[in-house]
Automatic annotation (TrEMBL):
It comes from the Bacteria. GO terms for biological process: prolyl-tRNA aminoacylation. This is Prolyl-tRNA synthetase. One of its GO terms (molecular function) is ATP binding. InterPro entries: aa-tRNA-synt_IIb, aa-tRNA-synth_II, aa-tRNA-synth_II/BPL/LPL, Anticodon-bd, Anticodon-bd_dom_sf, Pro-tRNA_synthetase, ProRS_anticodon_short. It comes from Candidatus Kaiserbacteria bacterium RIFCSPHIGHO2_01_FULL_53_29. It holds the Pfam family tRNA-synt_2b. GO terms for cellular component: cytosol. Keywords: Aminoacyl-tRNA synthetase, ATP-binding, Ligase, Nucleotide-binding, Protein biosynthesis.
Length: 427
RNA sequence: CGGGGCGUAGUAUACCGGUAGUACGCUUGCUUUGGGAGCAAGUAGACCGAGUCCGAUUCUCGGCGCCCCGACCA
């Protein structure tokens, strides 16, 4: 894409109402726009990153048998009353509203009825599966979605890390036995580790022993080490063991075979969470199957979440430097940033145009900075935007018959002759 | 929800009980062109409401909005 056509612009200053690094950089570089506290819109560059993250997750979840759907965000109270979660003291972040009443007048008006905006989707997915699962032959089954959740948090905070409206990849597993459930649970944990590795935070993200909340005794969180994180985790890098501070009791330590003083205490961001649901929802909503003997048996469920937006924010928090964002290749909005330093020289522009076309023919997507601005501004913007590979075209590089290739991550610069460009980019 | 802070051009900020200033941006022109250029001209602003006052952007009260700490976080 030609940068001159991109409607967003970079900014020198961050808005004063953003303190979190992720929001400051993402807004300055034109990735996101703040609508209100806890609600952000995604702009062209931001949406590209978001979709890349989504695609990584999709590929890894499909690889373990996930089937993708989208459930409705609007929810009627009936289902949630069956699981006793319509009450505000059961889920205190409900956004509730009402259907518009018909007939309007005081005498003949009918009540419109209540509605909620889904903060999570255990109830509707369980009810949906109850329509399709009858026999042991229909199981196991794994269903997921990327879908917007609404949570009326008392306090939104930390930029895009904790918002009132956010997309979540939520996967639900439906199994016939505890053993079958555990088998998938482990597979999913491995898939999560692959996802975080591809997203560029594999080295600092740990599967973490955590509380299971109200559904089970324990669960597994995926925690990324980061000073600006909200969680505290005890980490044993050597053994690769991590325990959320909340559950780090003597009993747990004994179970894991680690002494407390062997741990390093770190701040972390929770980028994923997987946990057993047991039969909590299948029993409440009547999701049973007939086993081999014809007996109705409740389905054993599990739930697996990742917020792509929070993951995006975490990548920015962890990998950015003083100049701006540093995207890992797989999530970057573009793999290549062509920067033309022309100073008005038409030959340089023609050379950069040629390069842009060459990459297009090779199906390598590039952001092409064809703007008529000075070199310093282009470099500063390129650093801020954070595309992993920069190709600089100028009079100087042309005289040597090639381009400069610069790595955003470590700044290494190499000269590449015109004939070798596409080969080098494929490395 | 408890505590604290803050609302001034598109953005970041300053001053002030008496006609609101600067920088960046944006527009026009000339010069410039490998790390956020220079000169000139132009554009654009006090969250809303009430009160005090001759006069309020400034002081007081209320509302709304935003940020931070804590609590909370299926």
């Amino acid at each position: 894409m030609r940068q001159s056509q991109l409607f967003t612009k970079t900014r020198r200053d961050a808005p004063k109402d953003e303190v979190a690094k992720n929001a400051q950089l993402l807004i300055r570089a034109g990735y996101i726009h703040k609508e209100m506290a806890g609600a952000y819109s995604y702009l062209p560059l931001g949406l590209r990153v978001f979709k890349n993250i989504e695609q990584i997750i999709r590929e890894e979840i499909n690889a373990i048998g996930g089937q993708e759907i989208i459930l409705a965000a609007l929810q009627s109270p009936a289902l949630w009353k069956k699981s006793d979660r319509w009450r505000d003291d059961a889920i205190d972040v409900w956004f509730k509203t009402e259907l518009s009443a018909r007939g309007g007048s005081a005498s003949g008006g009918k009540s419109g009825g209540q509605l909620g905006l889904a903060p999570t989707h255990e109830e509707p997915i369980t009810a949906l599966m109850a329509e399709y699962v009858q026999s042991y032959k229909d199981l196991p089954c794994y269903v997921y979605q990327f879908q917007t959740k609404f949570r009326n948090e008392l306090r939104a905070k930390s930029g895009i890390m904790r918002t009132r409206e956010f997309v979540m990849k939520d996967l639900y597993s439906f199994s016939r036995s505890e053993r079958e459930f555990r088998e998938f649970y482990e597979k999913c944990a491995q898939a999560y580790l692959r996802i975080f590795k591809r997203a560029g935070i594999g080295a600092t993200t740990f599967r973490t022993f955590a509380s299971g909340g109200s559904f089970s005794k324990f669960s597994d969180e995926f925690q990324t080490v980061c000073d600006s994180g909200e969680d505290t985790v005890y980490l044993h890098r050597g053994k690769g063991i991590a325990v959320n501070k909340e559950v780090c009791t003597d009993e747990v330590l004994a179970e894991l075979g680690v002494k407390r003083d062997e741990f390093e205490e770190v701040k972390t961001i929770e980028v994923g969470n997987i946990f057993p649901l047991g039969t909590r929802f299948s029993e409440a909503l009547g999701l049973t199957y007939k086993d081999e003997k014809g007996e109705a048996t409740p389905v054993i469920m599990g739930s697996y979440g990742i917020g792509p937006g929070r993951l995006m924010g975490t990548i920015v928090e962890v990998l950015s430097d003083e100049k701006g964002i540093v995207w890992p290749r797989e999530v970057a909005p573009f793999p290549v940033h062509i920067v033309a330093i022309s100073g008005g020289n038409a030959d340089v522009i023609a050379e950069a145009d040629w390069l842009y076309e060459l990459l297009r023919e090779q199906r390598i997507e590039a952001l092409y900075d064809d703007r008529d601005v000075r070199a310093g501004e282009k470099f500063a913007d390129a650093d801020l935007v954070g595309i992993p590979t920069r190709l600089v075209v100028s009079e100087k590089t042309m005289s040597e018959g090639g381009v400069e290739m610069i790595s955003r991550a470590d700044g290494t610069t190499t000269f590449v002759s015109d004939n070798d460009i596409t080969e080098r980019l494929k490395e």
